[in-house]
Amino acid sequence: MKAAILALALAAAVQAGNFNDVPQCAQPCLADSIRKVTKCQPTDLNCACKPDNFAKVRGDAASCVIGKCGQGRLREVLDGANRACQGHK
Fold it and tell me: What is the DSSP letter of 86?
């Protein structure tokens, strides 16, 4: 139950940061990775989308995204994250 509440809270935080183009299944993965491998908040796209941070998040989140969304949606998630970061890199 606590994990479900945390996942919903992280998904809401990522959405607030305009990751709307990223599939819902991947949003908790990205939020968790942003917090884990950067000094950014998931809602701070200017920070999270810096090239070094983006690369760290992408690498860290990949296995979670595959687990939550499936291998076939990895490209969709990456494309959505790239769109969200346009103008923030």
Answer: T
Please tell me the distance from the alpha carbon of residue 42 to that of residue 72, in angstroms, as a whole number.
24
Q: What is the pLDDT of residues 59-75, one digit of tens each?
A: 999 999 999 999 999 99
- Residue 44 to residue 16: CA distance in whole angstroms: 9
Number of Cα atoms under 13 Å in the Cβ half of residue 78: 13
The residue with tokens 């994990």 is 3
5-31 per-residue burial string, b: 16 or more CB within 10 A, e: under 16: eebeebbebbbebebeebeebbbbbbb
What pTM value is reported for the model? 0.76
